[in-house]
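Quick log. Single chain, no ligands specified.
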Amino acid sequence: MHTDTRNSFALVFFAIALCVGSLFGTLEVRAQNATHAPTINRLSHLNTLATRLGPGMERRLSAGGANMFHLGKVLSDSSVMRPADMSAAREVLHRALARSAARAQAAPFTAPGNGPPLIPVSDSSLDYLFSRISGFTQSETSTAWCGNNVVVGFNDSGADVRTFVEQVGGASFSGVAVSHNGGRSFAGLPFLNPGSDPGTFLGGDPVVACSDPSNFLYASLLSHATFDDQGNVLAVQTGIAVNRSRSGGLLWDPPVTAVVKDGSFNFLDKEWMAIDGHNPNNIYITYTNFADRSTDPACPPLPPTGRGVGPVIRIEIVSSKDGGASWSSPRVLGRVCNTGNFDNLSGSQVVVGPSGEVYVAYSRESPGRSKLLIRRSTNGGRTFTKPVVVGKAAMASAVGSFLQGGFRFTGFPSLAVDNFPGPNRGTLYMVWTDASRNSVPDFFTFQSKPYAFGDIVLSKSRDGGTTWSTPTVVSPVPSNFTGAGRDQFMAGVAVDVGGNLAVCYSDRREDPNNFLIDHFCSVSHDQGATFQDIRETRSSWAPDHRTDFLISPRYMGDYDTVSSDTTGSKPGFFSSFQVQNNGNPDVFGFRLVF
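-> predicted structure:
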């Protein structure tokens, strides 16, 4: 195994530059005719919804969902994002994107430090175009790899501002970058196409999937508002949107709605998406629905004491059998009614096995602990088995969901299935963070609770998810580590055509004080029996995540992903993740080639 660091810059960058130029030509026409008013706050209704759904609502949300609520508050300030000269701002943006495309063709930009270079996915030069007070944040990555084409989706506050500057109609918090040389180099598009409807907001939480080198899908959180001529909100909707690319990620169709609900009483969050590799017309999306309790007759009435005032929380799934042209009604896979004690149900992931079987994993959380659950369908998602407990976890940290450094953390699972020919075809792998093995007293925590250090653990199933192996630590604390413990978090898992397994995650093992962060991949050639650790970052970085006022102050994202070639034409993995250089969060990638 070796890390391919060749600086191969294909003509894809020239093609992307042409596509971006074409896109902006279209946007100029839209800008002349758009009814979109710069003063519209598409997310103002979330301020009311947070109150309706009860105390602690934002604590239960995914990072992407919490950001949408935060942005709703920020945009309520009439002084925010009001450039006096929009045409001048647009000219600045166009020049910067042209320079970005030229640099991408000429030479790579790599993060500082020694060792194998990281591959830049997002362009840090775009992060301070419009303000010295607030930069932009790129994080929470999803990667899809088919043949020579790799597409990375990520949350991008800069994309939101760029849609505002361009006046395209809708707004997009979803960023996208494209490689047509196997992930050796990337060029970024200015934003994921939100369409021309001024009420549309693509809220990030990206999930990217592909069925072949041409066809990619991108799922995002969706909020939609309808306004009168004075900008007053008439109706609001919450949903999951899907954009399609038929050009390997170069151009994206406007979003279509996979599921939508009344946004005054619901909020759809933390979606995931999978394509059936044997029938690409079959697409599945899972998500969490936070709903006003009065909307769910399956939940008993509130007791006279008033306990259980939180939202009803459901894991739901929708499916398409015609490539995304139409979608089924939602099916409920899990429900929690009494959420007064901050119980939660979230972090769903869906994968499709080699025979078309559908697996959905999710986390059932209670204060301090969680269960990792999975359900299976063998009839295309019409019915599912009862939930199987894969494992349990103690929540990391000591102060709810915040790790050392003040950023939020969740214990969501990551799920993968071996879909390639071989003796391990159909094997399921799940990874998550468990903090039950090491904790230390902490003077400043609530009720003197100890600080618990999380380990990435792995469990696998060879019988379709019916039984699971005892969870084992993927990468134990190194013997030469001198600190009290180290955090591991945001794990992703993938299997390649050779049956190799990769588990990639953020890790603080390089710092005995448990503050600085690195990214590691642990690779196994024997289905998880043994692992080789590979440090992907060349130098550690500090979590300085409060440089962007469009981002919740405790935000750093909930997940990063690792992917293999879905087509099975190439072994190896591509890992994408956030790195913060000098307080500026950007997305980088790393190729693992066998």
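The helical segments are 12-33, 45-52, 57-60, 63-74, 86-106, 157-166.
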